[in-house]
RNA sequence: GGAGAGGUGGCUGAGUGGUCGAAAGCGGCUUCCUGCUAAGAAGUUGUACGGACAAAAUCUGUACCGAGGGUUCGAAUCCCUCCCUCUCCGCCA
């Protein structure tokens, strides 16, 4: 959520920054309704003051009967008028809130202008792309090795659900542990949050109200399945004022993630790249405005460290103003190399939200010098998407005989160095 | 899920219609006293939003006793709905 004062006082600036994004975001209605709302509030307060005066004169006592009756009547009428004003005020307030929640964050100045992903800027690349003769797709390799069972995933749930069998299940668990262990060593404290969250959480991190249809919602309870650990972890401190000494707070969290993938019909229909349910380790930071820039860079490096540990070629991309997420002021995507597709695919998204989420979620901190509470800055990034990491490993570590070499960093977690084509079973 | 109890300031806890932004204690802050420490004395002590001021300090208005609604000239206090916590019962990994 943007600062209403900023919108009120610098409407032109805000509008010009929003224009860099993809989409049409007008703040003029907000400015208008804000003015009306403040007028209504002033009127309501004046009426209220009069009512307070009247009731005070009652408690001081010693009023003639007629006088009391007259005042009682006046107060009743004031109340009626006040109720009418208030009805309008509440309506305006709700309208203002809804409009405000629908306005995205302003892109940071260093974010390049652009329309879509074609205008994103490659910042760096890492690793060497091995030349593989006739590279096979991860889903072909995985199916042959008995790692993925796509058909039974559909039988048990529906399309875009996959069963991980045997080494697949173990691979997923090994990746999760490698990631969490690595991040823990860098100072991230591990969290295992609820996977169902209430509506306030989704509003707090910016998924709602704008993207209502994108998430799974329970029929009988006001609860949603988390689309990312970002939601429960960021909301851990919702409506709290933390001491500056506590910052920065670094958390890492594994959760399954659930997304309806509305609007991506036909995209990545084959394979394990786009699922309704997928595993992910997420990194979340809470810090002061002064350090958020630096913490964002460090967090991105921490996500990259996993790709480097797995020796997967990747590149870092700075998203342009048209491709950046709703809440983000700046975002790096990490893209891993998929040999069979012959291109880089997103495996992590590391965003700096500034105080945008903090305003929605009421995340504040009290400065050391004891001044007024200020909004925290939030940062998060995938570290990494586990399913896509598995898919990338299968493709990048495939051998001609159909076996897959286990990346060195995963050997301690897997217990084997090679997934052999013939005996695709977890040996205990 | 059923029955009962309860949700008050940073914390403990009083308050059953006006004198309550709210007693008292603890904690915090300031000052004084004491050779240091310990102890003691006095004072002070919430948040949010709006207005005044060029701005800060400050002054001022309004709201806030779990949330929302109602009764009343007036609600922490009475009524209704919801949420949460605790105890007992039931169920359960």
What's the pLDDT, averaged over the residues? 91
Outline the biggest β-sheet.
Answer: 8 strands, mixed
How are the strands ordered across the major sheet?
A: 1-10-11-12-15-9-8-4
Q: What's the CATH class label of the largest domain?
A: Alpha Beta
Oligomeric category:
single chain
Termini distance?
A: 51 Å
Count the E strands: 17
Gyration radius, in Å: 27 Å
When the domains are counted, the total is 2
Provide the helix percentage. 25-40%
How large is the share of residues in beta strands?
15-25%
* Helix vs. strand class: alpha+beta
Name of the CATH homologous superfamily of the largest domain = Bira Bifunctional Protein, Domain 2
What are the SSEs and their pairings?
Layout: H1 4-9, H2 11-18, H3 28-60, H4 65-101, E1 121-126, H5 138-144, E2 148-149, H6 150-156, E3 163-164, H7 167-185, E4 189-191, E5 196-198, H8 199-205, E6 223-225, H9 230-234, E7 240-243, E8 249-258, E9 277-287, H10 292-309, E10 314-318, E11 330-338, E12 343-354, H11 356-361, E13 363-366, E14 374-375, E15 377-385, H12 386-396, E16 404-405, H13 411-414, E17 418-419
Parallel strand pairs: 4-8, 7-13
Antiparallel strand pairs: 1-10, 2-3, 5-6, 8-9, 9-15, 10-11, 11-12, 12-15, 13-14, 16-17
Helix pairs in contact: 3-4, 5-12, 7-12
The protein binds one RNA strand of 93 nucleotides through α3 and α4.
């Amino acid at each position: 959520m943007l600062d209403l004062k900023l919108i009120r006082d610098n409407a032109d600036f805000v509008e010009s920054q929003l224009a860099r994004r993809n989409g049409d975001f007008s703040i003029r209605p907000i400015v208008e309704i804000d003015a009306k709302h403040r007028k209504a509030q002033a009127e309501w307060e004046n009426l209220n003051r009069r009512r307070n005066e009247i009731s005070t004169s009652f408690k001081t006592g010693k009023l003639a009967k007629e006088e009391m009756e007259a005042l009682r009547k006046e107060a009743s009428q004031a109340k009626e008028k006040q109720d009418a004003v208030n009805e309008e005020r509440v309506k305006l307030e709700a309208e203002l809130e809804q409009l405000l929640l629908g306005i995205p964050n302003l892109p940071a100045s260093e974010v390049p202008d652009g329309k879509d992903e074609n205008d994103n800027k490659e910042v760096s690349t890492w690793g060497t792309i091995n030349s593989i003769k006739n590279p096979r797709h991860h889903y072909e390799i995985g199916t042959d090795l008995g790692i993925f069972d796509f058909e039974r995933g559909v039988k048990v749930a529906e399309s875009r659900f996959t069963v991980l069998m045997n080494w697949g299940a173990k691979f997923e668990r090994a990746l999760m542990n490698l990631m969490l262990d690595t991040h823990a060593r860098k100072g991230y404290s591990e969290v295992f949050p609820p996977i169902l969250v209430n509506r306030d959480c989704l509003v707090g991190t910016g998924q709602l109200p704008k993207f209502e249809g994108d998430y799974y919602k329970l029929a009988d309870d006001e609860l949603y399945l988390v689309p990312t650990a970002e939601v429960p972890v960021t909301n851990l401190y919702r409506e709290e004022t933390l001491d500056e000494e506590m910052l920065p707070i670094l958390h890492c969290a594994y959760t399954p993630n659930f997304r309806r993938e509305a609007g991506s019909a036909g995209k990545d229909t084959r394979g394990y790249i786009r699922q309704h349910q997928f595993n992910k380790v997420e990194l979340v930071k809470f810090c002061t405005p002064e350090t958020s820039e630096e913490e964002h860079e460090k967090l991105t490096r921490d996500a990259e460290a996993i790709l480097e540990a797995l020796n997967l070629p990747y590149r870092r991309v700075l998203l342009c103003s048209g491709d950046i997420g709703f809440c983000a002021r700046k975002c790096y995507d990490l893209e891993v190399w998929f040999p069979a597709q012959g291109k880089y695919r997103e495996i992590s998204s590391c965003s700096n939200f500034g105080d945008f989420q903090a305003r929605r979620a009421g995340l504040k901190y009290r400065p050391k010098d004891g001044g007024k509470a200020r909004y925290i800055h939030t940062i998060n990034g995938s570290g990494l998407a586990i399913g896509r990491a598995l898919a990338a490993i299968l493709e990048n570590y495939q051998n001609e005989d159909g076996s897959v070499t286990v990346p060195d960093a995963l050997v301690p977690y897997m217990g084997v160095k090679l997934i052999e084509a013939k005996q695709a079973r977890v040996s205990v």
